[in-house]
Amino acid sequence: MEIAKDIQMGLLPSALPQLNDVAFAGLCVPAHEVGGDYYDLIRRDEQNYDLIIADVSGHNIGSALIMAEARTFIHARIDNILQPADMLTALNSYFLKDLDRSDLFVTMFYLQYNRTSRQLTYSNAGHNNPLIWRNQSKTIEFIDAEGLIFGIRDNIAFEQKTTRLAEGDMLLLYTDGIIEAENNNKDFSAPKDWENCLKNAPNSARRISLTGS
């Protein structure tokens, strides 16, 4: 199990881009020795980056292997698949038979960010809705697009949407571990908790990710 854990953590980005106009940070702390959480940030070119957050059901070696397959598929096909909705469609077709046999399922939120326009283009495969802290209005906005989890059926239509970020906005991607986290009173976290966290967070993406853990 320790070897499987090392393999899983080794699939996550070892370092994220350091840019002068946007800050990236990521953190993965498995609830068990091996889990199915996955995040990634892939540079397409100087202006465009793909951001991925995914969760495979279960906390075992099978979950970690499915996660590894998802990462391998994305990195192998990213030069030929240009849109988030198309990537999710391809992944669903790829996983359809394997997931049906394994009784596992995969959720994923796939985004593309353009540094020049500050536009986010995104699609969802049944994953938790990311949120944006809007600095100007001091409010939280959840973003979503229609789409089922992978492996349910073929020919799923994945909706694709866009939004724009403004200076000081923060985008938070997460898995259900955040939702299921309990405070000292054994209460689950709620959107209001996240709003307070982001509102009072230090001005550093890395420190924000550690605060939210």
Summarize the structure.
This protein is of the alpha+beta class and 213 residues long. It has six helices and eight strands, in the order αββααββββββααα.
Q: What top-tier CATH class of the domain at 2-128 and 148-168 fits best?
A: Alpha Beta
Strand content is: 15-25%
CATH-defined topology of the domain at 2-128 and 148-168: Phosphatase 2c, domain 1
Counting DSSP E segments of at least 2 residues, the number of strands comes to 8
The outline comes out as globular
Mean pLDDT value: 82
The stretches of 5 or more residues where confidence is low (pLDDT under 50) are none
Give the strand order of the largest sheet, numbering strands 1, 2, ... along the chain. Answer: 1-2-3-4-7
- CATH hierarchy: architecture of the domain at 2-128 and 148-168: 4-Layer Sandwich
How large is the count of helical segments? 6
| Biggest sheet character | 5 strands, antiparallel
Helix-strand makeup class: alpha+beta
Name given to the CATH homologous superfamily of the domain at 2-128 and 148-168: PPM-type phosphatase domain
Gap from first CA to last CA: 23 Å
State the helical fraction: 25-40%
Give the C-alpha Rg. 17 Å
